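The record is given unchanged here:
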Amino acid sequence: MAEAALPAHGWPWTLDPLRLAGALSAAAPPLLFGLRPRVSVGLGLYVAFRLELDNAYWAGTSAALYASRT
């Protein structure tokens, strides 16, 4: 079997800062879309448990429903 020759620096790919910045800027909206509901549910549950509400899970449920709408 013949092995593929690697470039002189030893990596089959190079890390281009402009491509990396472009990839990060393209990935930011989906990541924020997924992060926003998690943070809002966690904050809602934290406040509900801190206030010792009887049915604290409703705070997380309503935060999840509202965050998924926007």
Remarks:
- The longest helix spans residues 17-50.
- Residues 37 and 69 are 10 Å apart (CA to CA).
- The radius of gyration is 22 Å.
